[in-house]
Each structure stands twice: as structure tokens, then as C-alpha cells.
Specification:
The chain is an all-alpha fold. Helix content is 57%, strand content 0%. It has one domain (2-152).
Amino acid sequence: MKWKRVAVLLAVGLVAVQCWRPAHTNPAFSPGQTMETMIATPPDVQAILGRACADCHSNETHWPWYSYVAPTSWFVVGHVDNGRRHINMSTWVRPGKEPVDSIDRLKAMCSEVRKGDMPLTSYKLIHWHARLSAADVQRICAWSEEEQQRLSTVPQ
């Protein structure tokens, strides 16, 4: 009898928390302001970043079904919002802060994938395609370093 009450209370609680849903946004952006149009991003790098990074680091997030179910929704939306704040490939340009800002973000991208901190482990558990091979990490870092070098010679 006690377990039945606990199960009912848990079920009612799970249904009740569905009322608090965070906003699943994919804000509009100008195609001319994306990373791919502002810095040289080869197709192979675009493909790696698209499969491993874009869901949290762009305004083109694919929201899976579980991102609409609380409490998972709070976790997913929070990670996407945080990821976009740090690096957003859809709104790459930050007027008045370029090229230094791009160089800093490129350094961060290489550093995070090299340490294995990105993509997040929780994301990779569900999204197998997002796992980065050693070759993927090497390619991202080689591209990042090439772009940093190129951007450092661009007059401010």
C-alpha cells in the first residue's frame, strides 16, 4: 500500500512538472554572419562541426523528443543556451571585437576538443555520431591553428 502511494505521488509529480517548460528556440540569424561565411571553413571541418557541435553551438538545434519532457528538458535547453553563449556558429561575428574574438573562439574550440571536454559526455551517450575520433580532433585543431594564423595577419 505504501509503495502504491509513492508511485502515484511520483506519477502526479512527473505530470505536474511538465507545466514548467523552457523555451526551445532557434533564433533567426543572418546567413552572412555565420562562421562558415566569415572564416575559411573547409567542407570536411564543416561536416565534423555540424555533426558534433551544431546542436548546442548554433541557432539550428535539432530538438529531440526527450528535450520536451521535464526534467530532461531543463537540462537540454540549459546546455544549448550555455553553448550558444560561449560559441555560436550562426552568429559568429561580434562587431568591434574581430578578429581577436574569432581567434579566441578558435583557440577555445581546439582546446576543448583536445581535452575531450567537447562534445559533452552526456550528449555523446545519446548521439553516437557526435563522438570525435583522434583524426577529427586533429583536423579541428589544424584548421583552428591555420585560421588563427591567418586572422592574426588581418589588419584590425
